[in-house]
Amino acid sequence: MSSVPPFDRPGIWLKGNLHTHTTASDGRVAPLEAVNWFAEHGYDFLAITDHNWITPPPMDNPPLTLIPGAEISTQRCGVDYHVVAIGITEMPGPPGRDPQTVIDAVNTAGGLAILAHPYWHDHTLDDLRPLHDYAGIEIFNTSCWLEIQKGHSLVHWDLLLRRGHRVLGFATDDCHWRIPDYGKGWVTVRAAENTPQAIVDALKAGHFYASTGPEIYDVSLNERQVTVRCSPAKSVYVIGNDNSCPNAIHAWDGEPITEAAVELHPRQKYFRVEVVDFEGHSAWTQPVWVR
Ligand SMILES: [Zn+2]
Ligand SMILES: [Zn+2]
Fold this sequence. Notes:
The chain is of the alpha+beta class.
């Protein structure tokens, strides 16, 4: 039995939020307050991503790792796209440009480009398919969920994966602090160390899972058997490209699941795991391509 990435990787697990607004754009709390809130609530790193502006660190010795970033407004053919750029120290040109131009500039600068909240934009597959070389999409966004119930972009993710786009799934808060839209969606990263570069490297490599609550301790693949170990769960799903091959384990008897094994059908070219707890919160692994 061998664990799949990132569960097979050496390093440490780090929890972080990659999408945060402050009073430097349209957020209600100052950068210092935002940093302190996340540090006090068990987070190891934070990216402040104000609109079209890189907010400087609000203190010299922050209590968690700060990764510089910004949320960049872009547009193509009348369609808006917000690109969350992580690990950049200069804005890649003015806002309002084509999203692909911005994605390319972020990559050239050594950063990571995430397409923010596709459901909030009501993006169609046609809007997303022409773009390439971005790291992934926000599959969960707290602010979009609490404000308009368009926080889950799992359909966008599956449609892209099904068509061969190897994109990662991120959960973020996108907190603006007008309502309690913080601490509800995050990524748990397997990084070599707790530094901005190591975290960005791990994110680029897909060495993380996204969560709104549950923890995933291990996912392993033995021949075609997928085994998942996780915090107490109500359901564990192994989701692939072929929907005629259902694979789910449910706690029908109410006894929490902490380990689940399912046989992956030969028609599945990839699989991703979703763990759902008794409060309805989810954790999502990245897709694992098996052939
Ligand atoms: Zn946005
Ligand atoms: Zn935002």
